[in-house]
Design brief:
single chain; two-stranded antiparallel sheet; 11% strand; alpha+beta; 180 residues
Length: 180
């Protein structure tokens, strides 16, 4: 297989591989997108799942007595669908943006921002995979009304390769008590 290092990196790439990127205003339509390198938050940081930290700091600075956080969210309080949508924005395979890049915010409805491809067997999986599509078709997911990605995965810990930990998580449901 040949690797192409000269392909353009556009907003579709950046939406999953960075926390945030700001395009250069007034860019020409039908030309490659350009991004302000001073306004890119590289990698996946807290803001990707918890909301805009700068807005939070600005609000709290202007309102020091406010006791309710504004602009920062705790996904633990999300509905099942909100939690799934948050993960699916990057782990949902091929999706097409229908709104400007980086406009989806934690807690939003994904289908308001992307056209979601749920087909797994007919071109739904590309080099990036479709982890949400695979999960949605699993018996574990279809048999549960509460399972989300966070049931097995922690976004704050790198548990890759820790088979004992994942086995332990599987056993919370797949045991004699639950008859599975």
């Amino acid at each position: 297989n040949q690797v192409f290092f000269d392909r353009p990196v556009n907003s579709t790439c950046l939406q999953c591989h960075t926390t945030y990127a700001s395009d250069i205003p007034g860019g020409m339509k039908n030309s490659p997108e350009e991004f302000d390198h001073q306004k890119i938050l590289f990698g996946i940081g807290c803001e990707r799942c918890h909301g805009p930290g700068a807005e939070h700091v600005k609000y709290q600075t202007a309102n020091p007595t406010a006791t309710v956080a504004k602009y920062i969210l705790n996904p633990v309080g999300f509905t099942r669908q909100q939690s799934l949508d948050l993960c699916t924005q990057c782990h949902g395979g091929r999706m097409k943006s229908i709104k400007p890049p980086f406009s989806f915010m934690p807690g939003d409805k994904l289908h308001d921002y992307f056209t979601i491809n749920k087909l797994l067997n007919k071109g739904g999986i590309d080099v990036h995979g479709n982890q949400m599509g695979l999960l949605a078709e699993s018996k574990c997911f279809t048999s549960s009304s509460t399972m989300t990605c966070l049931t097995c995965h922690s976004p704050h810990d790198d548990n890759r390769g820790n088979l004992a930990l994942f086995s332990e998580r599987c056993m919370t449901c797949h045991n004699k008590e639950h008859g599975t």
